[in-house]
């Protein structure tokens, strides 16, 4: 008896794998007994279950997880020595940093980025400096997105094209969505769960991307007035659990001093001093955007240093 | 579930899933009539679903060409593009200075201030200035003026246009002394003809117009500025559901940003002020709340400093926070007179 025909029998009964999975297995077996083609059906059930079994993510033990954390996850610097703690393995395995920014509120400002690059390179733009500058600017890719479905498309494209990017050596290391809240607040209505479902699937996609491809994901969020007028991040309780790390930026109006506090971090207590901030395979949620470009470019710091060595 | 990320309505998605269509490939070789029968919907609706599905399906093929998502740009390309854009002058040199040369195209700029500070004047001035021909360092574009408060005065626009033409001929004479001439062919009446004026009487009309703008600008490609005076007016009246208001305004801001980006034009939004209770005292701040304040790229606040009008850059991703005085004269927005005196004294 061939496998396909037994699976086909099942297919006629259930239609989709999802429909099959929601049934109780014992009930299924009992049901199969009563059917005229019980042999075929039972075989089909075992077959499908074994296929499903191979589809789930592999089990990892603690050592393998540690190994993954040490070799595949990287900490990206924020460029601010006050709280950045550069780990030695930073960027060591990445071949070339490529950034995707989606800008909403701050439609990206290449001139501002140019200033940061100049600052990081720490020298006037001579010939070699210009080349580095151009390469850095070329590794920042920006896509304007004005609704959540376009963002899904871009994310999906990114996942599909990961293998080909690896071959070319230009792998995405940092993904910035600026800002996620302007896309999501629009679809969160008072009634209906559709908006909520889209928000969760956006969060899920970002987490998956971060985990499977070792990309640091940074999303920016807005703030609204909370209790006693103290600003709090938007998007509510559901979103709260999606990012691994939540940082809140605040600044006195009219003063140039900005501060950052940790609302949530897997290794840290609330309001503890911040150490390494942006780690590959984590999803981040930031309140506020002004600090963003400093951050993007600072992640390239090491890269520039290395390029300088190459050029000289 | 792949159909989960299709831009279709919740009921359509529910019907698709319950009919067993969960993947994009399951939709790829289907005829609209088959889908309409399975989902018990109209054929036109089924066709729409298939259209979005096939668009998404095309994304699934890895692109070999450049490794960049269609429509994406690198920062290098953007830098070069940005340098080639002229800015729209405000006719006040001090104000232009702090704005980095004027109002930037491809950006949404919000300008707010107390009544009588000169918001509408600045709006009219910008609608005129966007038409300064390329030979004179302008954009030679047209303007869309969306008036929600009924404060646009055509006589005033004519006055400002006339002053602008006079300024251009002065400039021309200066040039003639140097070496060459470029004729001022533009007439004040031409300037008025190139301002497309929309009078809006309710927030429904406002939303409808913003949705229509895309089509309008597609037909009038030389529109280089969209002025909304003011975005606030109708949204402050009889609006009880504040969460809905936030969503509507957020959606509007995204549409305006999309317009600015797509057609390389400047969007200028005027806002009113409100009092806000903060740390025990009442302070003036721009209306529409905290969520709205995230929506615009740049934010300029106009305020009185004694007898003098001032503009302050409150928020900008690329500009330093700074203030500059300006004045409203018969000719339009100009440098503050007292400022000139001060410079002369120095």
TrEMBL record, chain A:
It is found in: Nucleus. Residues 1-223 form the RecA family profile domain. GO terms for molecular function: ATP binding; ATP-dependent DNA damage sensor activity; four-way junction DNA binding; single-stranded DNA binding. GO terms for cellular component: microtubule organizing center; Rad51B-Rad51C-Rad51D-XRCC2 complex; replication fork. Its main location: nucleus. The keyword Hydrolase does not apply. This is RecA family profile 1 domain-containing protein.
TrEMBL record, chain B:
Residues 84-273 form the RecA family profile domain. GO terms for molecular function: ATP binding; ATP-dependent DNA damage sensor activity; crossover junction DNA endonuclease activity; four-way junction DNA binding. One of its GO terms (cellular component) is Rad51B-Rad51C-Rad51D-XRCC2 complex. InterPro entries: DNA_recomb/repair_RecA-like, HR_Repair_Mediator, P-loop_NTPase, Rad51_C, RecA_ATP-bd. SUPFAM superfamilies: P-loop containing nucleoside triphosphate hydrolases. One of its GO terms (biological process) is meiotic DNA recombinase assembly. It is found in: Nucleus. Keywords: ATP-binding, DNA damage, DNA recombination, DNA repair, DNA-binding, Nucleotide-binding, Nucleus. PROSITE patterns: RECA_2. The keyword Manganese does not apply. It holds the Pfam family Rad51. Involved in the homologous recombination repair (HRR) pathway of double-stranded DNA breaks arising during DNA replication or induced by DNA-damaging agents. Belongs to the RecA family. RAD51 subfamily. This is DNA repair protein RAD51 homolog 3. It comes from Prunus armeniaca.
């Amino acid at each position: 008896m061939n496998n396909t025909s037994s699976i086909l029998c099942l297919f006629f009964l259930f239609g989709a794998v999802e429909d099959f999975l929601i049934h109780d297995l014992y009930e299924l077996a009992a049901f199969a007994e009563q059917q005229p083609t019980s042999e075929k059906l039972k075989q089909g059930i075992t077959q499908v279950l074994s296929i499903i079994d191979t589809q789930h993510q592999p089990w990892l033990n603690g050592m393998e997880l540690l190994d993954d954390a040490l070799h595949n996850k990287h900490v990206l610097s924020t460029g601010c020595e006050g709280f950045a703690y550069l780990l030695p393995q930073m960027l060591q395995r990445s071949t070339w940093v490529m950034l995707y920014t989606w800008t909403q509120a701050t439609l990206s400002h290449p001139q501002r980025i140019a200033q940061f690059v100049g600052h990081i390179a720490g020298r006037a733009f001579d010939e070699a400096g210009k080349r580095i500058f151009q390469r850095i600017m070329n590794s920042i890719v920006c896509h304007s997105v004005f609704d959540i479905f376009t963002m899904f498309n871009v994310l999906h494209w990114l996942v599909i094209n990961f293998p080909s990017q690896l071959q070319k050596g230009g792998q995405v290391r940092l993904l910035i969505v600026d800002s996620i809240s302007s896309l999501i607040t629009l679809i969160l209505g008072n009634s209906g769960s559709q908006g909520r479902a889209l928000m969760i699937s956006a969060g899920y996609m970002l987490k998956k991307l971060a985990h499977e491809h070792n990309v640091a994901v940074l999303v920016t969020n807005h703030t609204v007035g909370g209790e006693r007028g103290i600003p709090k991040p938007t998007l509510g309780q559901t979103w709260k659990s999606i990012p691994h790390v939540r940082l809140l930026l605040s600044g006195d109006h009219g003063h140039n001093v900005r501060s950052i506090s940790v609302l949530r971090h897997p290794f840290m207590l609330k309001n503890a001093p911040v150490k390494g901030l942006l780690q590959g395979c984590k999803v981040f949620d930031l309140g506020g955007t002004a600090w963003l470009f400093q951050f993007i470019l600072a992640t390239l710091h090491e890269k520039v240093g290395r390029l300088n060595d190459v050029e000289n | 579930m792949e159909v989960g990320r299709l831009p279709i309505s919740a009921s359509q998605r529910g019907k698709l899933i319950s009919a067993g269509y969960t993947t994009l490939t399951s939709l790829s070789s289907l005829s609209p009539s088959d889908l309409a029968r399975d989902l018990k919907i109209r054929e036109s609706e089924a066709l729409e679903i298939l259209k979005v599905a096939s668009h998404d399906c095309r994304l699934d093929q890895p692109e070999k060409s450049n490794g960049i998502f269609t429509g994406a740009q690198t920062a290098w390309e953007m830098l070069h593009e940005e340098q080639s854009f002229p800015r729209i002058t405000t006719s006040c040199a001090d104000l232009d200075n702090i704005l980095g040369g004027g109002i930037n195209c491809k950006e949404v700029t919000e300008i707010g201030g107390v009544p009588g500070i000169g918001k509408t004047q600045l709006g009219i001035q910008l609608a005129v200035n966007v038409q300064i021909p390329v030979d004179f360092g302008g954009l030679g574009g047209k303007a869309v003026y969306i008036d929600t408060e009924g404060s646009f005065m055509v006589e005033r626009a004519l006055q400002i246009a006339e002053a602008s033409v006079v300024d251009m001929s002065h400039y021309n004479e200066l040039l003639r002394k140097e070496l060459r001439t470029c004729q001022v062919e533009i007439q004040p009446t031409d300037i008025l003809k190139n301002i497309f004026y929309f009078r809006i009487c309710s927030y429904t009309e406002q939303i409808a117009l913003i949705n229509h703008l895309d089509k309008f600008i597609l037909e009038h490609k030389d529109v280089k500025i969209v002025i909304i005076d003011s975005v606030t007016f109708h949204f402050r009246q009889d609006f009880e559901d504040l969460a809905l208001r936030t969503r509507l305004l957020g959606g509007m801001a995204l549409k305006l940003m999309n317009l600015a980006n797509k057609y390389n034009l400047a969007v200028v939004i005027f806002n009113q002020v409100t009092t806000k209770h903060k740390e025990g005292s009442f302070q003036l701040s721009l209306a529409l709340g905290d969520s709205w304040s995230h929506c615009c790229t740049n934010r300029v606040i106009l305020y009185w400093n004694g007898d003098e009008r001032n503009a302050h850059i409150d928020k900008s991703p690329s500009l330093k926070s700074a203030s500059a005085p300006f004045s409203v004269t018969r000719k339009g927005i100009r440098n503050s007179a007292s400022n000139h005196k001060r410079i002369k004294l120095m």
